[in-house]
């Protein structure tokens, strides 16, 4: 499976923070925002990833992540000149996807919960069409909302409905088979001239090939489109990390645990950040991994 991170847009709601920076470069407590969606793709076992951003911001991601080799990944870059809808990602990334399946994640989303890697890998392994991830919210009328049966099959999909049929909001994480490229090519743009991801999902729904996985109790889903939500996400990460002693979305640790890099490579990455708590943490993670492997 291939991965795509959509890290475009101008971040207008976060100005003046985004006057010269990409939103996805902003810090969420102790690491750049893009580490959070990147770690999700890695936890799903995905190593071939395309980052889509604007021309003015692409260089920032290249400087931060390079080609991904340090994390055992292959990271490429593509440009989205205008924010023409989430579904345009499949046209921009058509060559990247090829005949493979693809996971698309929005660059300003945080997902965190117990056993998330297993949940992701299980759904990647049984993908047949489209799999969405739903999260229960108190105000579903503000979101795209999915209705499912007891088996998780998607029954209906509504965008900001006045009378929601469920409380499951559609999150910014999507799994598709390779048909998604042709589906996106045949979409009719909305009145705003955008290719809507909801229309892609409805196409799979009409084919009877759409599922939704509920991320329920114990999971957190946060997006960071406003100053308030950005602060809340940072506070969430801070509280959990300080209480549990483990870092959320530490991409180097994820790479080690997934077998993408070795303990020595993780230790070397830690030495490159010597003097910081983050670097010391990587060194300790590498040591613990070696000790548990030897036991």
From TrEMBL:
State the family it belongs to.
Belongs to the glucose-1-phosphate thymidylyltransferase family.
Superkingdom, natural source: Bacteria
Nucleotidyltransferase recorded as keyword: yes
InterPro entries according to UniProt: G1P_thy_trans_s, NTP_transferase_dom, Nucleotide-diphossugar_trans
> What NCBIfam families would the database entry show?
rmlA
- Nucleotidyl transferase domain span: 2-236
Official protein name in the record: Glucose-1-phosphate thymidylyltransferase
Q: What is its EC number?
A: 2.7.7.24
One of this protein's GO BP terms?
polysaccharide biosynthetic process
Species of origin reads Halostreptopolyspora alba
General function of this protein:
Catalyzes the formation of dTDP-glucose, from dTTP and glucose 1-phosphate, as well as its pyrophosphorolysis.
Alphabetically ordered keywords of this record: Magnesium, Metal-binding, Nucleotidyltransferase, Transferase
Which SUPFAM superfamilies does its entry note?
Nucleotide-diphospho-sugar transferases
Carries keyword Magnesium? yes
Q: Which GO terms describe its molecular function?
A: glucose-1-phosphate thymidylyltransferase activity; metal ion binding
Instruction: Kindly state which reaction or reactions the protein catalyses.
Output: dTTP + alpha-D-glucose 1-phosphate + H(+) = dTDP-alpha-D-glucose + diphosphate
According to its UniProt record, which cofactors does this protein need?
Mg(2+)
Source gene? rfbA
Q: Which PANTHER family match?
A: GLUCOSE-1-PHOSPHATE THYMIDYLYLTRANSFERASE, GLUCOSE-1-PHOSPHATE THYMIDYLYLTRANSFERASE 1
